[in-house]
Design goal:
The structure holds two protein chains of two kinds. By secondary structure, chain A is mainly β. Chain A contains no helices and eleven strands. By secondary structure, chain B is mainly beta. Classes of the chains: A mainly beta, B mainly beta. The interface of A and B includes residues 2, 6, 30, 51 and 90 of A.
Chain lengths: ~120, ~120
């Protein structure tokens, strides 16, 4: 069983809708990540939060808005998406203490379809 | 900067046969190396990792990998595959630098292992 929980597992939305993806972990990790994965491709990094502060934004369009309300939660707010944004969105977490090995713990993902 | 190359996009293999999935990396600094597995419609799960020490690393589900610094390779092997091993396998590297409390992980393009009954 994964220790990173993502909801919803599936989401269908129109281009004018506003929705959110949620991610929760209780492993005490202080780095959390959003990845986007298209079919038959590796995960692409979107955002990294470290100690609840946004550390990396990989030039992601503003229609994706991340939020880290506390050390256990990570949200991705979606607005005015395009059909090409349809993908599997993966949340991950990792340690940030000295000796961090970069090992990522992934959730099962949220499958997003934009109509 | 670092990069990961998985030359084989698909590897078909008969059940109970051995398999090797190839991974080569490039980096100007010391790296940590990983293999992740992704089953259909699921997230990624760590198979094994190389941090330091013994170059032969054993992971879950009977997989192992060998780190070869001179050839900058980290190939994944299993002596006898099962149908349940059918999945996508990603090689990944992460450098030793710890800026901002996180590390950026670079993934290879993945290898689809198709186990044939």
């Amino acid at each position: 069983d994964t220790e990173v929980t993502q909801t919803p597992k599936h989401l269908v939305m129109g281009m004018t809708n506003k929705k959110s993806l949620k991610c929760e972990q209780h492993m005490g990790h202080r780095a959390m990540y959003w990845y986007k994965q298209k079919a038959k491709k590796p995960p692409e990094l979107m955002f990294v939060y470290s100690y609840e502060k946004l550390s990396i934004n990989e030039s992601v369009p503003s229609r994706f808005s991340p939020e880290c309300p506390n050390s256990s939660l990570l949200n991705l707010h979606l607005h005015a998406l395009q059909p090409e944004d349809s993908a599997l969105y993966l949340c991950a977490s990792s340690q940030v203490r000295t000796g961090n090995t970069g090992e990522l713990f992934f959730g099962e993902g949220s499958r997003l379809t934009v109509l | 900067a670092q990069s990961v190359t998985q030359l084989d996009s698909q590897v078909p293999v008969f059940e109970e046969a051995p398999v090797e999935l190839r991974c080569n990396y490039s980096s100007s600094v010391s790296v940590y190396l990983f293999w992740y597995v992704q089953y259909p419609n699921q997230g990624l799960q760590l198979l094994l990792k190389y941090l330091s020490g013994s170059t032969l690393v054993k992971g879950i589900n009977g997989f192992e990998a060998e780190f070869n610094k001179s050839q900058t390779s980290f190939h994944l092997r299993k002596p006898s595959v099962h149908i349940s091993d059918t999945a996508e396998y990603f090689c990944a590297v992460s450098d030793h630098e710890n800026s901002g409390g996180y590390q950026k992980v670079t993934f290879g393009t993945g290898t689809k292992l198709q186990v044939i009954p």
